[in-house]
Amino acid sequence: MSQLRHLAVALRSSGQWMRGHVGTGRRVFDPRRNCSSGAAEPSLAACSSSYVVEMYYAWLEDHKNVHESWDAYFRNAQASSPEETKEKRLSTLLQGRTMSQTPAMSQKVVEDHLAVHTLIRAYQVRGHHVAQLDPLGILTADRNSFNPSDLIASIDKLGSYGLDESDLDKTFQLPPTTFIGGNESTLPLREIIRRLEMSYCGHIGVEFMFINNVEQCQWIRQKFESPGIMTFSDREKRTLLARLVRSTRFEDFLARKWSSEKRFGLEGCEVLIPALKMIIDKSSEAGIESVIMGMPHRGRLNVLANVVRKDLDQIFCQFDPKLEAADEILYHLETDKNIILSLMANPSHLEAVDPVVQGKTKAEQFYSGDTEGRRVMSILMHGDAAFAGQGVVYETFHLSELPSYSTHGTIHVVVNNQIGFTTDPRMARSSPYPTDVARVVNAPIFHVNADDPEAVMYVCRVAAEWRNTFNKDVVIDLVCYRRFGHNEMDEPMFTQPLMYKQIRKQEHVLKKYADKLISEGVVTLQEFEEEVAKYDKICEEAYTSSKDEKILHIRHWLDSPWPDFFTPEGEPKSMSCPSTGLNEEVLRHIGEVASSVPLKDIAIHSGLSRILRGRADMVAKRSVDWALAEYMTFGSLLKDGIHVRLSGQDVERGTFSHRHHVLHDQEVDKRFCVPMNHLWENQALYTVCNSSLSEYGVLGFELGFAMANPNALVCWEAQFGDFHNTAQCIIDQFISAGQAKWVRHNGIVLLLPHGMEGMGPEHSSARPERFLQMSKDDPDCYPEFTGDFEVQQLYDCNWIVVNCSTPANYFHVLRRQILLPFRKPLIIFTPKSLLRLPEARSSFDEMTTGTKFQRIIPDDGPASRNPGKVKRIIFCTGKVYYELTKERKQLNIEEDVAIIRLEQISPFPFDLIKDEVERYSNAELVWCQEEHKNMGYYDYVRPRFLTVLSNKNPVWYVGRDPAAAPATGNKFTHVAELKRFIDTAFNLEAFKGRSF
């Protein structure tokens, strides 16, 4: 029993474990555990010897402790040699031969085998900590400089495992969890250590033992442990050298021609270019046809030139990193296959492009029917400091396994400078490696010394094979350095003097690798020099050509995934928008499906049955509420072959329990129905998907999805409008300015619940002032157009901002988004209380053929019939309209006050506002809003009203006073504020004596 306890301790320390029955204390062994095969029959060849040891001792204690097949096996072994002691029999089991040993000798054999197995596991788990990853040889790749003492000069540290130098030449049985033996099942300890150090402690460090999938771990072990597996042919080496020449000489050329420019060059990590090309080559061999890439500044020009193959004269002609845009160019591979490479545009917010790339990748997979990511994939490049420091990286990783967001594996390449701008890793992150965030999704991480090109190529080959085998993310950590500072004008010696003293002495990787191949006889010095001269000549000729003013053709290299949408010159093919109304039969059909359960055997919630009956009642009365209008919008677009995608937190049901686009069976888990996909026989697919609790990552994803196809309505809904604040980077950098920066249209729709409902400062305002401030229309200039004013104004704007007060107008603005001959982002401030307000319903008559979106909704009451007698016009937008009309009716002044709704706020409908002002020529103008004066719409609309009025008349403000918070947290105060400004809106004497 003492031996048994000793073995149990040893097994726990080696990572082996056993399964027990809860509460019984009995250990029952499964013959398939710790065995490389899944067979239930006992097999010494397939099972860990340490596992056999413990099973044998447990069997001696009680035959019922093991599976019946092993019970039979041990009984037969004992019957065949009953005279043997258990120690002799165990030795026979372990070493395959019968020998006479004392109990002490037998225990030493067992302990030594366990120790060797533990040593092997230690290298697999922690060998990366002692790998030679830093090209400079002055740092370790991990932040803590942690070196496992038992793996440093491990021959001298054998005592940590109960071994000593006398054991080095002993032969040990290898466990099935290692491939270092190749075809051999036993090796001397000295050779075991040598092979482990070659596999895990050289220029490659592998992190994978945290992965909880045996098959995947074994796959990685085989790729890095099998003897002789990391080999390259002479042809492959020559190709690698040629790619290094291009990468290095491109940077040298830029440095000579533009020595005073910020280039964010690749010096110190020139191996990135051949690394990317290896990934692309191997992925193409596996069937990949399209690769979408995203990357930060460093090396971007080099990637464009030598991976994407953008013409060099185009790069030199507009040499400015700020002008880089998305590219889609055919890249001809040596395998005679064409593959489309798309390098996504991105801003200085380094990792913001990550979810955008994923979204576009998902869209291309979706539209091409690539449900498993076998034809379309993504590659993301990162900097080490940004990868560890920016939360959107974590958000993007957590989308990787979600059904509606997975792209079936992304290859992440981290250009690990071992420094941020001027901040070293000890101050920049708490995790040992910058790549540790990838462990949350069990992605293997391959650290590699970037000054060993062949090691890099091997890692990239394995990464491509991993992605195309398991369709999961993988990370390549290229441990390198920056030869210059953060940019070429920077002085790094100010903050990293020791590192940069070493860098100045560091031999270039091209020189080192060329010398290596020359010494091996793979190439001659003359061949190498000719390769260099050949590429230098290409660069010089492109430089000369770039001076021709006719050479710059921006649209020549822009990403063009929207065939037949624009003219060859990049202009819309028309500048008109057809009616957005529908035939009543179509509306009624959609309404009937929206009121039913197409799959009859689904048991829905009783409360949902009541909601569906209410919808049916509305259809019968030819009216719609907000949810039904949305249903009719989406359904009508699906009928026309337009894919509709709605994404966000809880969008399937709707935050306010109004949508219910997914009907869940109350009895059967995971059984549900999406009625929207049962509208028409040959309709497009409707995708509605609850997202993770992320705004930044998910909005970026949906933006990327919307880039892929103009004939799709892609909507992202915030749970509450102000929740977009954590996605502000995507809004500022991509949505607002995307077309201006990168000449790219995008039709994404943001649905932002907004309204002062007394819900407090965090659930009231969608912060419309932010969107309006970033709208580019000139407040002081009345626009003049020769064609359709509405369409021309929309074409000139950077985005459209609306606050619809009726379901019909919501219906029309969404349909207009698709029927317009171009695409602009659409920001919609959606309601909360209006979702169920009886007054906020629309008739079919407002949605049928011939109707369209109303940029403003004029007053249609008594005031409109005698405009000359109207004393005041109140302009407003959104929910406050219903509160104003209610108060006006109670005061019985419907002939004295006109209330006009501004539905499209930006671009400002100058033409329609002018018509209304001229119509009520004797009335004073009031702008009324429920938001505080320094928020909402007032600062945007006021100067534009004055432009309409030629600055001759004032526009009075009615609303809440300025405040720091968007809304009060006290319900009593909220009601008091509302009453005060509503009273003021109708106090016709309120403004007398006040100067403007």
UniProtKB/TrEMBL annotation:
A GO cellular component annotation in the UniProt record: mitochondrial matrix
Catalytic activity: N(6)-[(R)-lipoyl]-L-lysyl-[protein] + 2-oxoglutarate + H(+) = N(6)-[(R)-S(8)-succinyldihydrolipoyl]-L-lysyl-[protein] + CO2
Molecular function terms from GO: metal ion binding; oxoglutarate dehydrogenase (succinyl-transferring) activity; thiamine pyrophosphate binding
Cofactor: Mg(2+); thiamine diphosphate
Places the protein is found: Mitochondrion matrix
Alphabetical UniProt keywords: Calcium, Glycolysis, Magnesium, Metal-binding, Mitochondrion, Oxidoreductase, Thiamine pyrophosphate, Transit peptide
GO biological process terms held by the UniProt record: glycolytic process; tricarboxylic acid cycle
Domain Transketolase-like pyrimidine-binding, chain residue ranges per copy: 624-837
UniProt cross-references to Pfam families, sorted A to Z: 2-oxogl_dehyd_N, E1_dh, OxoGdeHyase_C, Transket_pyr
EC code: 1.2.4.2
Recorded superkingdom: Eukaryota
CDD domains xrefs: TPP_E1_OGDC_like
Key word Iron-sulfur present: no
Keyword Transit peptide among record annotations: yes
InterPro entries per the UniProt record, alphabetical: 2-oxogl_dehyd_N, 2oxoglutarate_DH_E1, DH_E1, KGD_C_sf, ODO-1/KGD_C, THDP-binding, Transketolase-like_Pyr-bd
Similarity annotation: Belongs to the alpha-ketoglutarate dehydrogenase family.
Stated role: 2-oxoglutarate dehydrogenase (E1-like) component of the 2-oxoglutarate dehydrogenase multienzyme complex (OGDHC) which mediates the decarboxylation of alpha-ketoglutarate in the tricarboxylic acid cycle. The OGDHC complex catalyzes the overall conversion of 2-oxoglutarate to succinyl-CoA and CO(2) while reducing NAD(+) to NADH. The OGDHC complex is mainly active in the mitochondrion. Involved in the inhibition of cell proliferation and in apoptosis.
NCBIfam families hit by this protein: 2oxo_dh_E1, PRK09404.1, PRK12270.1
Name the UniProt record assigns to this protein: 2-oxoglutarate dehydrogenase-like, mitochondrial
